[in-house]
Specification:
Strands 3-2-1-4-5-6 form a six-stranded mixed β-sheet, sandwiched between helices. Helix content is 55%, strand content 10%. The C terminus is likely disordered. The protein contains 15 helices and six strands. The two termini are 53 Å apart. Helix 6 runs parallel beside helix 11. The chain is α/β, with parallel strands linked by helices and 425 residues long.
Length: 425
């Protein structure tokens, strides 16, 4: 057995990983047939196996440095037949690891209840004269899933629950919420954020359905006295994030307060200067609702969870091992399966770390992070034959039988037949 490197295989595996990245990103962005995340992630990694597997197979066809010329002459057809098996393996492991990653441990509840807290103080006549915030809230309600519940709280000097929590499972309920929002008008008065968040928590506590998490969307254009060290304790204890939107805030004290509220509770702060953009911001917050996949940033209560960080890294290691062993199966070589498998564990570790600490929730940057992770995955696997030596060694009995059938007898000669009747004369 020898330590070898096929540089052509290295470059072709990177090329295959790049092509798989493009196809995978199209899959993530378009999400055909509204595929659930578990299936989507499984297909994504199956595409990775296809891209890297094809790249490695074509490279060894051109320059069989790792498997030898005998593999190309005798087993190339079998390798093409075994390639789909790698895809099936990666699909299964991708689905399994994503299923585990999406499980809720430690009392974490999936976020299903959304409380919209909307500022209707007098200053809104200047910052939002066309009442775009109400139109944005209405548009969001129409886009929510049927298993969501929604409530609406408005506030100025005083807070008011204009719509208690209501299920959106029926079109009648959805229309009811829409009618309530459409009837809202800007009032006179100041900005009481403390009272608004207190009322929002009362609404959340009114839900008697177990196993449902909640989040708050708070929109304001002003500032009020608020102690983030004490007034957010219940939100912290319950793990409820408050996503805040600052609309046309000229006073930095107002934006700083909203930023602090979001940071303390694990939410996001959005600084909006144009009220016409509120619809996009509301939708963006909802799209991040409880988002937790191996390929995207965690935006739910597990965002800072070391447990889920470890699960993601271990999942990528398992995926890397599966890819490496799958390549060994394609080449019908147990030594390559071992070398690529060990390399897959190492590359999966690095890919998992890259995803865990690189993903940030920004679509463009996250795509770059996924590309880097895929290229690292492909590169380390393809180079690991220099660390773990390889040689010829068939995995399948079929390959061994074929080799035995095609091998000539010892030194290419038949054993001479002994003449038992000869006595030397």
């Amino acid at each position: 057995m020898q330590r070898k490197i096929n540089l052509l295989l290295f470059f072709f595996s990177l090329l295959g990983g790049g092509v798989a990245f493009v196809l995978g990103e199209l899959l993530l962005s378009r999400r055909p047939y509204d595929l659930p995340s578990i299936v989507l992630v499984g297909i994504y990694f199956a595409i990775v196996a296809l891209g890297v597997g094809l790249g490695c197979l074509i490279a060894e066809m051109i320059s069989p440095r790792l498997n030898g010329l005998s593999w190309k002459q005798r087993y190339l057809g079998l390798s093409w037949k075994l390639l789909p098996l790698t895809l099936v393996l990666m699909l299964g492991v991708g689905v399994l690891t994503e299923f585990v990653y999406e499980l809720n441990f430690g009392g974490i509840k999936p976020i299903k209840n959304v409380v919209m807290v909307i500022d209707d103080s007098g200053s809104m006549m200047q910052s939002d004269p066309d009442n775009s915030r109400y139109a944005a809230a209405d548009a969001l309600v129409r886009q929510m899933d049927e298993d969501n519940q929604v409530a609406v709280v408005t506030f100025s000097d005083e807070s008011s629950v204009v719509q208690p929590l209501i299920s959106l499972s029926s079109s009648a309920n959805r229309e009811k919420v829409s009618a309530v929002i459409s009837s809202l008008q800007t009032t006179e008065g100041g900005t009481n954020i403390s009272g608004a968040l207190t009322e929002a928590m009362n609404v959340i506590n009114s839900d008697d359905k177990a196993g449902r998490g909640a989040m708050v969307i708070l929109l304001s254009d002003g500032f009020s006295q608020f102690n983030t060290a004490t007034e957010l304790n219940e939100y912290l204890e319950r793990g409820i994030a408050v996503n805040t939107i600052g609309l046309a805030l000229d006073d930095t004290s107002g934006s700083n307060l909203l930023l602090d509220i979001a940071s303390v509770t694990g939410g996001q702060y959005y600084d909006v200067t144009d009220a016409n953009r509120l619809g996009d911001v509301f939708q963006q917050i909802y799209d991040r609702l409880g988002d937790r996949t191996l390929l995207t940033e965690r935006s739910d209560a597990t965002a800072d969870s070391p447990y889920y960080a470890v699960v993601r890294i271990l999942a990528l290691m398992l995926i890397g091992i599966t890819l490496g062993v799958g390549l060994g199966i394609v080449f019908d070589n147990r030594h390559l399966a071992k070398s690529f498998g060990v390399g897959g564990a190492v590359s999966g570790l690095f890919a998992g770390l890259i995803l865990e600490f690189g993903l940030s929730g920004h679509s463009y940057w996250d795509a770059i992070i996924r590309l880097i992770a895929l290229l690292v995955l492909a590169a380390i696997i393809s180079l690991f034959t220099f660390v773990v030596p390889v040689g010829e060694g068939r995995l399948s009995r079929r390959g061994e039988r074929n080799a035995a059938a095609s091998a000539p007898s010892s030194e290419g000669f038949h054993s001479p037949r002994r003449n038992r009747g000869s006595k030397g004369f």
